[in-house]
Amino acid sequence: MYNIVFREDPLAELKTASTYQKKLAVVHEVLKKRCPGIDRISIALYDTKTQSLATFLASPSTGSPLRNYEVVLKEGSVLQKIALESTPRIVSDLRVYEDHDATHSRAIVGHGFASSYTHPMYHNKELAGFVFLNSLHNYYFRERILEQVEIFIHLISEMILNDLASARALAAAMRTSVSMVQKHDHETGAHLERMSRYSRLIARSLVNQGTASLDDEQIEQIALFSPLHDVGKIGIPDRILQKKTRLDSAEREVMNRHTMVGRQIVDDLISNFGFEKLPYIDYLREITELHHEAMDGSGYPHGLRGEEISLAARITSVSDIFDALTTQRPYKHPWSNEHAFAMLQLLSIDKLDKGCVDAMMTVSSEVTKVQQQFAEVH
């Protein structure tokens, strides 16, 4: 006869963790019990369109040496070699990077980490990012440790990438719908790419200025969802969307309904496809419903004021208006960035969030890079 034993599942909290950050913390806690010298786990995501690598998650989340950071993955770099060869890298003594110019190398060494392990992540056979492990001990990643580490690395990769794939599948389906509508609305896929990156720049700038407490995961989700703000225009008649003259009051009332139509579409998609547990899915709800609210309460659909409007929606509003001003339309030439920034400042007196406007102006050189990378093709 066998005794029956009920054993506690050390990873049970993964089922209830509401964010990627919390999931990573659960895995890190379990891994540290097996390998106490693994003092930090971090994940950076790769953007194939810009060939850049950006910080996304880190455990522990507090006191991380690298946050809100992005760098282009240069041809011939060590990380590119790791990605191409699908070969993990071990650095047994990080003092070899003490005189290195790269910001990320200096930050890791300066924080006291002494050894590291780097593993590439792939989705659909394309580079998706990297998992980094750091220890405060030299020569920590020896064979016995690696036997434990490599199992957890694949767990972390699959866990994060599967969840991200769901969020991105939702976003991709909605972007396709938005693109179909915006072909009538004189906007393009390049507009959606710029919107995403402007929103990321504004969010990062707010964090750098100390006026927002967003982490890298929240910033990434705002960037993912902000281009979907106008999905509700699917429900607006073409005669209104395509009208080249000013809308009358009745037509304007119909057009204004796109925010609530968008919210309903989002709610239906989330419910029908089981996306309720996607991290920060409420950002998508807020962005579609509230991106036309105004700081003085004169916006729609609810007449919210100031911080009653979610930060994600306020960021999206600034991104959208700036791109509309600086993009050519059948009825207008594109404004210069200087002219557009001046208009944003004027609107920040009562309509737009002044902090978000100032944040965008602070990173004007990065804004120009985005415009160059995702220029309209006529």
Shape: globular
**How many β-strands, per DSSP?**
6
- Roughly what fraction of the amino acids lie in strands? 5-15%
* CATH level-four homologous superfamily name of the largest domain: Hypothetical protein af1432
Number of domains: 2
CATH architecture of the largest domain: Orthogonal Bundle
Number of helices: 14
Which sheet architecture does the biggest sheet show?
Answer: 6 strands, antiparallel
What topology emerges from the helices and strands here?
Layout lengths: L19 H15 L5 E8 L4 E8 L10 E3 L5 H8 L3 E3 L11 H8 L4 E9 L2 E10 L7 H40 L6 H20 L7 H10 L12 H4 L7 H8 L1 H15 L8 H10 L20 H16 L10 H11 L6 H9 L1 H10 L5
Helix pairs in contact: 1-4, 5-6, 5-11, 5-13, 5-14, 9-10, 10-11, 11-12, 12-13
Report on the architecture of this protein.
This protein is α+β, with helices and mostly antiparallel strands. The chain folds into two domains: 150 residues, 2-Layer Sandwich (Beta-Lactamase); 191 residues, Orthogonal Bundle (Hypothetical protein af1432), CATH 1.10.3210.10. 49% of the residues lie in helices and 11% in strands. The chain has 14 helices and six strands. A six-stranded antiparallel sheet has the order 3-2-1-6-5-4, sandwiched between helices. Helix 5 packs antiparallel against helix 6, helix 5 packs antiparallel against helix 14 and helix 9 packs antiparallel against helix 10. The longest helix is centred in the middle third of the chain and has 40 residues. It is globular. The protein starts with 19 loop residues before the first helix and ends in a 5-residue tail after the last helix. The model has no long low-confidence stretch (mean pLDDT 91).
